[in-house]
Amino acid sequence: MTRPLSLAHLTVIDLAPPRMIEVAARIGYASVGLRLIRVTDTTPGYPLMDDPTLMRETMAALRDTGIGVMDIEFVRLTPEFKPAALEPFLEVGAELGAKHIVTAPYDPDLSRLTRNLAAFAELSDTYGLDPALEFFPWTNVPDLRSAVQVVSATDNPRIGVLLDTLHFDRSESMLDDIDTVDRHKLPLVHLCDAPVQPSYTTDELLHAARSERLPPGKGRIDLHSILDRMSADIPLALEIPMDRLRISEGSEAVAKLAFNEARHFLSGRAK
């Protein structure tokens, strides 16, 4: 059976949701992740909650293609975070039929971050959406162990951890750490590959994360060992920005290469 794949918005971040959905359907993706909140000053977000026309066009694209929405992003848990301010975002996520919300740790006070994540999960639960906390090596939740500790401290079974294979490899996360996590706490994976070196500067971490990754099987991350420790049916989203290819050939070429190489990689695992 062919494993369904989701297209993460960062892979084709210059495409507005309707166009992204059409591209994903044409290539063969089953779903998409939509970036509704801008992350950096140099990359766009698409606030469907503030743009009724774009929201209607996005819903039409979903209906016309049959594509689903895996997740919406990107919620920064900062010291000033107020869950109620995200209600329009949650309303749109529910209308889109999304399953998960990607959240990110940007609060130096882990106790406050945990409380805010728990409060946000209570609110998002009323919209049928489950938060997943993503860890990043340049934050104070730098690895899988730290993310699991925060999520466990919320005492809310609906909150999971988003494991991105790039961040897993470039942090102090260990393969054995995956074995200690309840499977329901790992609701989805961002799958990509990259070169591997002994250490990285923060600039190198950020550049790879936001601009240049590789399709599965084209780098040196031990993806087989990571996936071997997870449920065989865990949803996989391809988050593989490749700016050089995007600039030369366009985002659809990036999405197509990512899809084809992931299919090849996963078919090799199935044999």
TrEMBL record:
The keyword Transmembrane helix does not apply. The keyword Ribonucleoprotein does not apply. It comes from the Bacteria. Keywords: Isomerase. Gene3D superfamilies: Divalent-metal-dependent TIM barrel enzymes (3.20.20.150). Its EC number is 5.3.99.11. Residues 22-248 form the Xylose isomerase-like TIM barrel domain. GO terms for molecular function: isomerase activity. This is Inosose isomerase. The gene is iolI.
